[in-house]
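@channel sequence for tomorrow's demo:
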Amino acid sequence: MQAEAARKTIAVVGLGYVGSVTAACLASLGHRVIGVDSDPIKVDSIRQGLPPFYEPGLDRFVSEGCASGRLQATLDLPEAIRDADVALLCVGTPSSENGDISLEQLRRVCLEIAPELAGRSKPLIVAVRSTSFPGTGEDVVAPALGHHPLAPVASNPEFLREGCAVKDFMEPSLLVIGSSDRAAAEAVAGLYRGLPVEPQIVALRTAEMIKYACNAFHAVKIGFANEIGAISSRLGVNGEEVMSVLCKDYKLNTSAAYLRPGFAFGGSCLPKDLRAITYRGQSLNVKLPLLNSVLPGNDAHLARAVAAEIGRASCRERV
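structure tokens (generated this afternoon):
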């Protein structure tokens, strides 16, 4: 349990999957949490001490939070944020038809919060938990809040997996908070005090990008393992054994090695072996779109580097 001085009043806006888990777990850490949603079914469920959906372990956290009085729910947004120190926005940012994300719910919630900022005597940190692209905090959230001086904006992306979300929250592998207001970022980080993780406080746009980088990396890892498994199977090789041994190299494979933006790769081994494995896949009629994209991607990065150097040289000549 956190010390009394460290406890905060938190409004969790949106009681969907992320919001319900976030609200219940923060209440278990000793904070006073008020969840708010426009769906009366979700609100009534929380009020009755029941989670709005099934997630292992969530029922106990919701029940205990409601019984202690630390977890409440309401349909009234002004009521939720009236005494809040932090508003965690957990509304949906679904895909649009063109593949972009829709920020309509996020923008609408911020526009509803804005009028409630008048007359406040203490700050309301508005922290976005929803997945949103870099620039959302600066270009959407802050303007919708009227750039109010008592409403610093932060990004606090969630890393919760369905089926183990409560465990992911209480035993986080990563905790990221981004803001241009250092005090606001540290205040949000303080909400998680007591959990076994070191907060990573970064710039606002950096925090927004980290969520996408993590999810893209996870997708690439899965795609890579599946393609190696597919060609291994066609060659009569145990793909699981291949990947199991690959993961035992903690120096180059499962490490920070190569995971740093820089120059394109070159030499003889990497290009040669990539061409060989993709050629063999084609001859075996095994589609390897991820591996096939690596060399063209490397060529594109090399072209960007050359263009950037030409641009710098041109600037030096003009000076």
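heads up for whoever presents: DSSP finds 13 helices and eight strands in the chain.
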